[in-house]
Amino acid sequence: MKNAVRVLVAVMLVAGVAACKKKAVKQAPATTDNTTQTQTNPADTSGRYTVDSLDTDACLRQRVVYFDLDRTEIKSEFQAQIACHAEYLRQFKGARVTLEGHADERGTREYNLGLGERRGNAVQSALGSAGAMAGQLNVVSYGEERPVDRGHDESAWAKNRRVEIVYTSAQ
Amino acid sequence: MMRIRHELLLFLLAAFALVLPAQAQDPLKISVPEGTESATPIAVVPFAFEGAGLPPETDVADVIRNDLARSGQFRTLGKNDVVEFPVRGADVKFGTWRMLKQNYLLIGRVADAGDGALRVEFELFNVASGSSMLALSMTGQRTAMRDVAHQVADLVYEKILNVRGAFWTRVAYVTSVGTGQNTQYALMVADSDGFNPQTVVRSREPLLSPAWSPDGRRLAYVSFERGNSSIYVQDLSTGSRELVSSSKGINGGPAFSPDGTRLALTLSVGGNPDIYIMDLASKRTTKVTNHFAIDVEAVWTADGRSLVFTSDRSGKPQLYQVPVSGGDATRITFQGQYNARASLCCDGKKIAMAQGSGNVYRISVLERATGTYREISTGSVDESPSFAPNGSMVLYAATEGPRGVLYSVSADGRVRQRLVLSDGDVREPAWGPFRQR
Question: Phi/psi zone of residue B336: left (φ > 0), alpha (ψ -120 to 50 degrees), beta?
């Protein structure tokens, strides 16, 4: 199930970048539902997002950042994604994410653990500079151990060189 | 007339022996892709069973023949090309074996030794001189005949080559079966030829980087069962294990020191992966490398004074050597874009590594004295080389179609054998140390 979601997220990514730009000019819902029992802390209603935005907001639903071979720089096309997650984390101080770093199969497994961590750290520092707090972010590297595509060609490798933004707490 | 015909038949058989590939035997498959002119010809005659009841399941002579062949040091006479079946020295007609151009001849027999045990008696001859080089017997349980056969092969190897044999050793490796959430990982231990596989650890999370203790009693390995990578040391005979490292960040690449008291490992608790050494008794760690690069995959030199590791401090991964006390690391590899995962042998005279160029990764062996490299694998994603303890062979992981498989290859790269060990994906081989009888 988790994998199915990951694949869905990956598929939505291309459409999502465009959608996110549109979203940026929309008004966020002005109020939250006060009857929701799970909402123990009043959300910062001045912000754009509600907790539901993680499921509904086109930009926040993008949770995979892809990388070039042997590279750890975040490409410009992912800046919008980083910015909206940072904004969400700024708004919901209790939210926590694990940044799961991955590499493609080329190269040794132990080196790829290092590479996955470097990518996770790159996303962590980008989220940090955009306003997320260090305590909200955790990096775990899986190296090449958890490919989304088990193929042995560039299209598979491109999908596997990634950082997945996984929310472990939404608010 | 009769005699001439006999000789003609032998000649034809010998000619066929050059054409026919070695008999394929499940789960083993030997391929000899290139000539082995320099390999020594040896005939292993099927051992006669002289006990009561049924012969053992294991064909002792087959196991020995297979061991000698895959070492690359010997060219074994095919089983079907053996035309005479001497059981004792008095039965041997050396002329036959000279005509078959054999340098050495091994004969033997298996007999009851009481209490269900069997005794394997064997004798090795120099064909040219007709002299006996070695005559011994070895006793073992009926179910342990593969162990006995590997030990006989080790003795024959050592007698002829003056190098200790490493057939009676074990290998560790990781398998993964299934996909996605249903993937099941296992850390396995098997005989050096892939037989007798045993599951040592089973997990739903990735396992990697098994490393043997010098006495062969423990394995250190990396497991993701706690969510993040962590390192365990497990006793093979009891199955009990100890979590030795679960710091924040990466806990990877364990390697026992030659005296077994310390573990080299990779930790990224300091912000990026560096090499550390842990004292196993106190669990105290000291940092060996201190660089913003990725430093991983440390292995010990035989004297225990240095570590060889992989670092991308020059841009791409290359091998470096550093004293265990820390200090400056010296770069070892300069040829090839990508050199990683060192395996040392022969007092550090040779280093096997995964050498990458573009999308192709193969195993290469560096002779340190001359600085020359020899490519010993032929795949496109070959990795994780591991030397046999006598340096005669290298075990490595390859990808064939969708699955990972293991190969053993002679250190000169000429004789290759695929070990078919599991239905799933097989990788991360680690060749264990010599065993004590």
Answer: left
With an 8 Å Cβ cutoff, are B209 and A142 in contact? no
Residue B406 and residue B418 in contact, taking contact as beta carbons nearer than 8 Å: yes
CATH code that applies to domain B170-431: 2.120.10.30
One-letter amino acid for residue B199 of the chain: T
**ipTM (interface pTM):** 0.88
Please give the domain boundaries of chain A with CATH numbers for all domains.
2-20+49-169 (3.30.1330.60)
| Residue A35 reports pLDDT greater than 60 | no
Q: At CB < 8 Å, which residues of chain A contact B?
A: 1-3, 70, 105-111, 113-115, 117-118, 121, 139-142, 145-146, 150, 152
User: Average of pLDDT values for B123-136?
Assistant: 96
Q: Which residue do the tokens 């992912």 mark?
A: A78
Q: Span B239-253, mean pLDDT?
A: 97
Kindly provide the residue ranges of all beta strands, DSSP E only, lying in B56-179, ordered along the sequence. Answer: 74-76, 104-114, 117-126, 131-141, 170-177
**Is pTM, for the whole model, over 0.90?**
no
Of the pLDDT bands very low, low, confident and very high (cuts 50, 70, 90), residue B291 is very high
* Residues B13, B83 contacting (CB under 8 angstroms): yes
Q: Is the pLDDT at B33 greater than 50, yes or no?
A: no
Q: Would the CB atoms of A113 and B229 count as touching at under 8 Å?
A: yes
Q: Which of B307, B312, B396 to mutate to probe the A interface, most A CBs <10 Å? A: B312
Q: Is CATH 3.10.20.600 the classification given to domain B2-161?
A: no
